[in-house]
Amino acid sequence: DTGVSQNPRHKITKRGQNVTFRCDPISEHNRLYWYRQTLGQGPEFLTYFQNEAQLEKSRLLSDRFSAERPKGSFSTLEIQRTEQGDSAMYLCASSLVGTGDGNTIYFGEGSWLTVV
Amino acid sequence: KNQVEQSPQSLIILEGKNCTLQCNYTVSPFSNLRWYKQDTGRGPVSLTIMTFSENTKSNGRYTATLDADTKQSSLHITASQLSDSASYICVVSDGGNKLVFGAGTILRVKS
Q1: Tens digits of per-residue pLDDT, A83-107?
Q2: With contact defined as beta carbons under 8 Å apart, do B15 and B109 qualify?
Q3: Is A42 close to B91, i.e. CB distance below 8 A?
Q4: Which residues sit opposite B62 in a β-bridge?
Q5: Cβ neighbours of residue B96 under 8 Å, at least 6 residues apart?
Q6: Is A44 in Cβ contact with B101 (below 8 Å)?
Q7: From A42, A108, A109, residue closest to B101, measured CB to CB
Q8: Confidence at residue A59, expressed as pLDDT on a 0 to 100 scale
Q9: B97-106, pLDDT tens digit by residue?
């Protein structure tokens, strides 16, 4: 197991284009989170999944953002009609709720988005 | 409003010295408090997790303390090394499904 994997690690896109990030959580982890982090700030919660169900979305997640976890394994985060303000690092994290290690949340290395 | 505030914002110390980072929170109800280390351009890595009943927890040269009455936590780093240079983030959970993150303390260890 190589931990939480995110792809691509870096993406530069023109304003108005769509981008999609993929997250592969730790195998068998039932909970998956997406966060956004800008320079000098801590991560901000965007959304989370329990298995394939998206249970909560932050108000930060505008209608241009959509996240899916169709089979309860990997997840995608799509941003449509990107804006310069979307430039940030998008972090994925996973955990296994319901076990003694359920409080430990493991983060991926993040996907850097630059909108030009 | 649930908030986590960290101090100092940044810190420079000499290799081999000790340092202490502070975290104050107003998250309620309280479930647990975590400290993460985040290297530049990388994802956060968990250092410690403490629940309400735990006052201190160590992970190698890192020792975290928690005072749930005053809603304060500290992270003490002993005998600092160059590889300790990173951002240290305090994170508080209310037992729900979100974590409240502090902005982090940027630590730079100089030789």
Answers
A1: 999 999 999 999 987 655 557 889 9
A2: yes
A3: yes
A4: B59, B77
A5: B31
A6: yes
A7: A42
A8: 86
A9: 678 899 999 9
